[in-house]
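Problem statement: downstream parser choked on a complex file, so we are re-checking the raw output for the nicotinamide-adenine-dinucleotide run. The parser issue turned out to be on our end (a line-ending mismatch), but while we're here, posting the original submission so the record is complete.
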Amino acid sequence: MRIVMIGAGYVGLVSAACFADFGHDVTCVDKDCEKIAALNQYRIPIFEPDLDKLVESGVNSGRLRFGVDLSDIGEADAVFIAVGTPSRRGDGHADLSYVHAAAREIAGLLEGFTLIVTKSTVPVGTGDEVERIIKETNPEADFAVVANPEFLREGAAIRDFQHPDRIVVGTDDERAKKVMGQIYRPLYLNQAPILYTSRRTAELIKYAANAFLATKITFINEIADLAERVGANVQDVARGIGLDNRIGAKFLHAGPGYGGSCFPKDTRALSKTALDYGVQLRVVEATLTVNEIRKRTMSRKVSGALDNDIRGKTIAVLGLTFKPDTDDMREAPSIALIAGLLDFGAKVRAHDPVGMEQAKKELSDIEFCDDPYACARGADALVIVTEWRQFRALDLERIRTDMATPVIVDLRNIYRPEDVRSAGFRYESIGRA
Ligand code: NAD
């Protein structure tokens, strides 16, 4: 199959490299010239484990190329739209301007029957609008618009793409089903189920999935608050409920609140879509509110660990990205935490294994350190915000002697309280009395 991928971000680049790896012929297009120039020199503009090798092998095989123009669209069987759909300022709805612009750019270039596939996360009805835009721009075009939401997770994106739990294809068009079946055929071998639905259903599946996962995280976060008060251990509660197959063990890790490029914006957009249709999703709205408040209250937790005497103190923050194995800083809990610490008059320094370049664009008035030990040196408290592997076995003895006061606030519960306390620290974590 000949595929054009529009957007070389976390989703577009991974999808393009994986499709080329399946054996398809892929042109990945981005209007960001610097990104394309980097890719053409085998430099990957994002951090995603093993993506460099996959891109290199795709390019060397001749099946993957990068460019800024859409001239390959005439030859394509399918054009995937994988551009950003960030929150629109003001009302939280998804900003569809990039998707609509891509549809307009594609329209005039179509030759022969072509699939237009939305891989971006788009609200219900976006496929209809993309169809309308293309028909309006090029009334002669022979095409079908398909919704094919992506479920990959940053940090495990390649594995997720190659071994998906399911592939959702939203279309009623028989020709479109056939082409999509051929594109994903290599995954039949992995027995990945393809779920064919209507386009609107496929669009809603993606938002429902993200809202459900965000709700699950928020639920266990609230249980963590209660566990702290009643003298229980949230990790044991999570295990105790997660072993029930109806509940499942995943997404039950209490922490500082969810962030990232998807859950916050997608829960906001779903709630806005529902209101547009006269439906109130109260559970999703509660999740949004609880999570926002939680992210902001984490600075109070740190202050509490210093007996609320934090003005002028130095706080060392370990981990800035919204989760490990990515450089993505979008809506990371570290941002709200650090803003709160600075508001309290604390001095903040931070270290992240790969996210510091992105973090520098988001965070000012803090000092960036090259490693966890330099970060901890002379600090009054050490806060673990992202559970990078590099932070899981720190030399506690060395850190204790280097710190001004031995206080650790572990917002990811990566240490056992008894180990840290016996190493001479005051230790606070989440939901463990
Ligand atoms: P991103 O911001 O990393 O990448 C988007 C890219 O699209 C950018 O490089 C931008 O320059 C490019 N672009 C925008 N308009 C363009 C145009 N007209 N022509 C060519 N290129 C254009 O975004 P992302 O994280 O890859 O997310 C893309 C979509 O996938 C979003 O809708 C997101 O919700 C969804 N999604 C993301 C993830 C994730 O983990 N990041 C997972 C599943 C779904």
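For whoever reads this later: The chain is about 45% helix and 15% strand.
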